[in-house]
Amino acid sequence: MKLLQASVLLSVALSLSAMFADNCLGQSSKVDSLSTLLSAEKIDSSRVTLLWQLASQYQSFRPDTSLQLAQKALLLARRIRFVEGESRSLAVLATSQYLLGDYPKALNNYVLKLKIEEKRNSPRNYASALNNIGLTYILLEDYSNALAYLYRADSTANTTDKETKQELKYRIEVNIGEAYYRMGNVDSAAAYFNNAYSLAKESLDSASLGAAILGQANVLALRNESQYALYKYQEAYAYLNDGSDIDILCELSLGMAKAFDKMNINDSAAYYGNMSYQLGESAKFLSRELDAALFLSGVFNKSRNYDKAFAFLQKSVQLRDSLKGQEKIKAALIYSSDEKLRQQEIAEQKLRDKEARSKQLQWSIIAICIPVLFIITLLISRIKTHKRVVTFMGILSLLFLFEFLTLLLHPVVARLTHHVPIFELLIFVVIGALLVPSHHKLEHILIRKLTRRNNDGSGLNISTKRMIFKTKK
Hints:
Layout: H1 2-40, H2 44-58, H3 63-79, H4 83-99, H5 103-118, H6 123-139, H7 143-157, H8 162-183, H9 186-203, H10 206-222, H11 226-240, H12 246-262, H13 266-283, H14 286-302, H15 306-381, H16 387-417, H17 421-451, H18 462-472
Helix pairs in contact: 1-2, 1-13, 2-3, 2-4, 3-4, 3-15, 4-5, 5-6, 6-7, 6-8, 7-8, 8-9, 8-10, 9-10, 10-11, 10-12, 11-12, 12-13, 12-14, 13-14, 14-15, 15-16, 16-17
C-alpha cells in the first residue's frame, strides 16, 4: 500500500513538473509576442491595450512586473482619455495588488473601476467589478460588505444576455457560497454552492464543476458528514487533477485527508495529507505546506509514530519562520512597487505639464495672431491693393475668430454634457445656428467697409489723391 502511494505521489510530481514547464513556455511565447507588438506600436490607444494584456500575462509569475505595466497602461489611458483602456488597466492593476496580498489597494482600484463602469452601458463589466469587490472583501474578512456587493453583482448579472449571465452567475454564486462558508452559515453556503454546481453543469466547464463540488464537500465536512464529504472530494478530484490549479488541489487533498482522519483511517489520512504537502512544496505555497505539515504532525502523533510527528512539527516551525520572512519580503516588494509606481506618476505628471504648457503656448499664439491678422487686413485695405486680396484677408480673419470661439467652447460643452456625443452634437448645432448667420453678416459688413475705398479710386493712397486734385485744379 505504501509503495503504491509513493508511486502515485511520484507520478503526480512528474506530471505537475511537466505542466509547469508547458505553462511557462506558453506564457513566455505570449509575453515575447506582446512585447514585440508593443515595441512596434505607435498608436497610443493600441499601446494601452497591449500594455494591460502584457501585464495580465505576468500576473501569475511576476505580479510586481504586472503591477508596473498595468500602472503604465492606466496613466497613458487617462492621458489620452481612453475610458475602456482605463477600466481594463485598473482591473489588471487591482488583480496584481491582490496577488501581492495588498488587499486594501486592490479594493481601492476595483472601486475606481466600478465608478467608471457606473457611467457606461455594460452590465457585464459592472457586475464583474462588483464581484471582484465582493471577493476582495471576503479576503479582508469583511463578510457583510462582501455579501452586499455580491448580491448587487448577482442582480446585475440577471439583466444580461444568456451567455454572459451563465459566465457571471457561476463565479458570483461560488463567491457568495464561500462568504457564507467562512461565516459558518452552512445552510446558505450549501444553497449557493448547489446553485453554482447546477450552472457549471450546464456550461460543461470541468474546472468550474470541480470547484463547485469542492465547495459542497467543504460544507459537508463542516457538518461532520465525513463519509459523504469524502465522496464529494473524490468527485471533485476527478475534475481538478489536471494540475492547472495547484492551490485548489492542495485544499482538496487536505480536505480528503481530514475526512479520512475523522473516520479514523490513518493510512489514507497520512497519504492525502502528504499529497497536499508535496503539492504545496512543489508550487512553493508555504501556507499550504504549513497547513499540511501541522495536520500530518497530528496524524502521526495520533498513530504513535512520534519520529514523523516530531519531524513534521519541526517542519511547521520552519515554515512559520519562512512565512514571516516571506511576509517581510512581500511587504518590501509592495513598498518597492509603490515607489516605482510613484516615480511613474511623477514622470507622467511632468509629461502632462509639458503638454499643458505646449497647449497654453499655442492658445496664446492663436490669441495674438487673430488681432494681428485684423490689423494687417486693415493696413492692406488702406493701400492700393486688389479688392480680392482685401476680401480674402477679411474672410480669413473672421474664420480664425469664429473657429477660435468654437475651440474655446468645446471643453466647456464636453464638461457640461459629460462627454455624451449626442448632447455635444445638439449643443454645437445650436451654437452653429447662431454663429453662422452672425459670421456671414459680419463678413459682409467688414468686406464692404474694407473695400469701400477701393471702389471708384478711393483705394488710392493720400499722395496720389493730392496729385489728382492739383491736376484738376
